[in-house]
Amino acid sequence: MIVTAEKSYRAEIGIKDGRIAQISGGQVSAAAQVLDAEGKWILPGIIDVHTHMELPMELATSCDDFTTGTRAAACGGVTTIIDFSLHRKGTSLEASLRDRRRAADGRVAVDYGLHAEIVEVNEAILDEIPRLVRDGVTSFKLYMAYRRDGRMDPFWSISLSSC
Q1: pTM of the model
Q2: How much is the pLDDT for 45?
C-alpha cells in the first residue's frame, strides 16, 4: 500500500540507485532483488521541520547531537530535518550558518537544512538576506518572545508596538 499526499493505492515500487525509479500497478521491470512488502504500508520519508540538535541552553545542551539525533530520526522514518543556525549578536548570518554546517556536516544520518536564525537586525544583516536566499536558505526565524533573554531584537518590539 503506497501512501502519498494525494491518495493511497496498491502498486509495486522499483528502486534504482537508492531512489524511486518506477511505480507500477503491475510488475516492475526486472529487478536484482525483490522485497516482499505485502501487508506493509510504504510511506514517503518524513521531514521534521523543527529540530534542536546540540542546542546550547542556559544550563545545558540538548541531549541529541547531530549524530544521535539524526540516527534516531532515520530509525523513525525521518529522511530530512531542518535545524536552526545559532546567530549571535555582533556576527553575520552567513557566519552562523557556516558554523552550524561545520557542526553537522559529516555527522548527520539524514538530509538536513537550516533555518537562518536572526537575533539582531541592522543594515548589514538585512543586506545578507537576499544573498542567503540566492544560496538556498528558504526560511528565517525571528523571535517574538524571549525579550529578557536577548533573543528578540528591539527592532521587532518597536515594530510590533506600532501595529
Answers
A1: 0.73
A2: 84
Grid coordinates in use for 88? 549571535
Looking at the fold, whether 37 and 104 belong to one and the same domain comes out as no
Beta strands in the chain (DSSP E): 2-3, 8-9, 12-16, 19-24, 46-48, 78-84, 111-118, 140-142
**Half-sphere exposure (Cβ direction) of 100: Cα atoms closer than 13 Å:** 24
Q: Which three cell numbers stand for residue 148?
A: 529578557
Phi, psi angle pair for 100, to nearest 5°? -70, -40
Q: How far apart are CA 21 and CA 8, in angstroms?
A: 18
Asked if residue 88 and residue 147 are part of one domain, the reply reads yes
* pLDDT one-digit tens code per residue, 22-81: 888 766 666 677 778 888 877 778 999 999 999 988 788 899 999 999 999 999 999 999
31, 6: one domain: yes
Number of domains observed in the structure of the chain: 2
Q: Which three cell numbers stand for residue 105?
A: 556536516
DSSP-based three-state secondary structure for 98:
helix
Which residues, 6 or more positions from 155, have their beta carbon under 8 angstroms from its beta carbon?
121
